[in-house]
Amino acid sequence: MTSTDARTDPDCLFCRIVAGELPADVVATSERSIAFRDIDPQAPVHVLVVPRDHHGDIAQLAAADPELLSDVVALADEVAGDQADGQFRLIFNSGPRAGQSVFHVHGHVIAGAELGWTPA
Ligand code: AMP
Question: Where can the motif Histidine triad motif be found (predicted)?
Answer without folding.
Answer: 104-108
